[in-house]
Design goal:
With 64 residues, the protein is mainly α. The protein has one domain. Helix content is 84%, strand content 0%. The longest helix is centred in the C-terminal third of the chain and has 36 residues. It is elongated and about 60 Å long. The termini are far apart. The mean pLDDT is 92.
Length: 64
């Protein structure tokens, strides 16, 4: 049985080889897409944080 870490690494390897093996993409596109994915994650996380902070502030106001 493979560990979760090994499975995760295998999935990443499949994605990297897909990018580099199709003849259209290149390492720069791989890095650009990875940066875009991470930026999207940060934006999503910021939105979630804002939503939770708003809920927390509302909760505190209701107890005053």
């Amino acid at each position: 049985m493979t560990s979760y870490e090994e499975q995760r690494k295998e999935r990443l390897a499949e994605s990297v080889f897909e990018y580099l093996g199709d003849g259209i993409t290149n390492p720069r596109l791989l890095l650009d897409d990875l940066e875009s994915i991470l930026n999207d994650e940060v934006k999503w996380s910021e939105g979630e944080l804002t939503r939770r902070l708003t809920a927390l502030k509302s909760f505190h106001r209701s107890w005053k």
